[in-house]
Specification:
By secondary structure, the protein is an alpha+beta fold. The protein is built from three helices and four strands. α1 crosses α3.
């Protein structure tokens, strides 16, 4: 599984990256977590508001910081597919 955290480095973007790593570790998911900070790459991915979250090439969150439980649900759902 490939998880990308898209953001230029704001507090919410940094927090999302921390939460993603925490949830991945707790769920024992085999996932590669990538931080994307280049604005061109973020826009190319279709994210106009940060933070953004992509899992396996699909945008799952944009413009908000999900709660830990929301993030756990998003990642768990993506694991099943």
């Amino acid at each position: 599984m490939e998880i990308k955290v898209l953001g230029t480095g704001c507090a919410k973007c940094t927090k999302l990256e921390e939460l993603v790593k925490e949830v991945v570790q707790e769920l024992d998911v085999d996932a590669k977590v990538i931080k994307v900070t280049d604005i061109k790459d973020i826009v190319k991915a279709g994210v106009m508001m940060t933070p953004g979250l992509m899992i396996n090439g699909q945008v799952k969150v944009t413009g908000k910081l999900p709660t830990k439980s929301e993030l756990t649900s998003i990642i768990t759902t993506a694991m099943v597919k």
